[in-house]
Amino acid sequence: MRARVSSKGQLVLPAAIRRARSLSAGSEVEIEEVPGGILLRLIRGTAEVSLDDLLGCTGYQGPRKTLKDMEEAIRKGAHGRT
Fold it and tell me: E strand or H helix at 11, and its extent?
């Protein structure tokens, strides 16, 4: 595949490569000079998520529990072990 560098120094990667590597606006690549050419390496970062999204992955949808409620549940669970 070929790509052309614009007058601003920008390189547009072919759509097939962007799709295959899940590249979109804002994706970052590392550029390295290697013998015989240039190597582009995709930088895989962590996705930005909100605290609500992160906490939502716990799956609990009931009423909020206090620290006292949680400690009591732990005590009850510990007494049930043999």
Answer: none
Residue 8: DSSP 8-state: T
The alpha-helical segments, DSSP class H, found in the chain are: 15-20, 51-56, 67-79
Question: How many structural domains comprise the chain?
Answer: 1
Q: Tens of pLDDT along 11-57?
A: 999 999 989 988 888 888 899 999 999 999 988 765 666 777 667 66
pLDDT of residue 34: 95
- Domain of 53 in residue numbering reads as 1-82
- Residues 30-65 as b/e (b if ≥16 CB within 10 A, e otherwise) read eeeeeeeeeeeeeeeeeeeeeeeeeeeeeeeeeeee
pLDDT at 6: 92
What CATH number is associated with residue 36? Answer: 2.10.260
